[in-house]
From TrEMBL:
Keyword set includes Cell wall biogenesis/degradation: no
Source lineage: Bacteria, Pseudomonadati, Pseudomonadota, Betaproteobacteria, Burkholderiales
One Gene Ontology biological process: DNA repair
This protein's UniProt keywords: DNA damage
Keyword Ribonucleoprotein (UniProt): no
Protein name per the record: Protein ImuB
Gene transcribed to yield this protein: imuB
């Protein structure tokens, strides 16, 4: 496969391309089409002085660069700033309390570094280096994944204290390093005149970070709405520290109970009427027909109803429609 072209061949290939492929031509595409300029060859045929007066210099620069008549300038890739500090210990350390004292110094250095650059972090790694040589062991790494960007040293130190409090050192520590590889711009801080009931979003994020550090990240979950018509699949549990995904609100006409049974409970029939706890249920609303899941083994073909018993307690029940004999199930309870 040829990967290079001679300039005359390159020019012929480029001449046939539509002018819309040139990014710098996009803002002036309607004007170019109005004057009959549809290809790069048409664009090159226009008087350069007039084209420069009626457009912008970047259009001619991009055209010349495409044809190899001028150098193409690219912006350098600039990785985001990252923090890395390491402190060698004077002697072997076998207790986390001594490690925490060193981590405090590193957290203060990180806080000052972030404040000076107006940055914040979403992830922090505390690395504990062990003995090298014949008895070398891989470093122990404690990762802090944060619900929101933070930059205050006390908050970072509190989370490190929780992590170290749950750690049992398997080998003596000879050095402690603190790494912040992912930084973001520090969000503008805004305060309110009066305390907000229930706390602010930052308070909630700090609570999530503390729970994740104390219990483990996999133990702190949040409900995540899923675009699925099947009630049991419309919700899932996700990582509480991940940014929640935006979900479309349910139609106001949908009447859903807050308590769903997992799995749904089979109902007995008496005179073709479903019964629950020995009482016949009266169908108040429905059916709401749900047919979904044909793409996976959990195919759902149901008719949902809102039912009441003699005490006017409401239930969300459904009838399976894929069987010859109707089967009824209790799927949810209303408050």
């Amino acid at each position: 496969m040829r990967r290079t072209l001679a300039l005359p061949t390159l020019a012929r290939r480029l001449d046939a391309l539509p002018v819309a492929l040139l990014p710098q031509a996009q803002p002036r595409l309607d004007w170019l089409h109005d004057i009959g300029c549809h290809t790069l060859a048409d664009l090159r045929a226009l008087p350069r002085a007039g084209l420069q007066r009626r457009s912008a210099p970047d259009l001619l620069q991009a055209l010349d660069a495409a044809y190899g008549q001028s150098p193409e300038l690219h912006r350098w890739i600039e990785p985001p700033p990252s923090f890395s500090r390491r402190i060698e210990l004077m002697d072997y350390v076998e207790h986390t309390d001594a490690v925490l004292a060193v981590a405090r110094r590193l957290a203060e250095q990180l806080g000052g570094w972030l404040a000076a650059r107006q940055l914040a972090v979403r992830r922090v790694v505390l690395r504990l280096d062990h003995e090298r040589g014949r008895h070398a062991r891989p470093p122990t790494e404690l990762e802090l994944a944060l619900a929101q960007p933070v930059w205050q040293a006390p908050q970072i130190l509190n989370l490190l204290r929780e992590k170290l409090g749950r750690l049992t050192l398997e080998a003596p520590v000879i050095a402690v390093a603190l790494l912040a590889p992912d930084t973001v711009d520090q969000p503008a801080a805004s305060t309110t005149l009066f305390p907000e009931p229930g706390g602010t979003a930052a308070d909630h994020a700090r609570l999530l970070d503390l729970l994740a550090a104390r219990l483990g990240r996999d133990q702190v979950r949040r409900p995540c709405p899923t675009p699925d018509h099947r009630p049991e699949a419309a919700n899932s549990w996700g990582d509480a520290l991940d940014a929640p995904q935006r979900a479309e609100p349910l139609p106001a006409t949908l009447d859903r109970p807050f308590w769903l049974l997992d799995p749904p409970q089979p109902l007995k029939l008496s005179g073709h009427r479903p019964q629950y706890a020995g009482q016949a249920l009266r169908l108040m609303r429905g059916p709401e027909r749900i047919e979904s899941g044909w793409w996976d083994p959990a195919l759902t073909v149901r008719d949902y109803f809102v039912a009441e018993d003699a005490a006017r307690a409401r239930y969300w029940i459904y009838r399976e429609r894929d069987d010859e004999h109707a089967r009824w199930f209790l799927h949810g309870l209303y408050a």
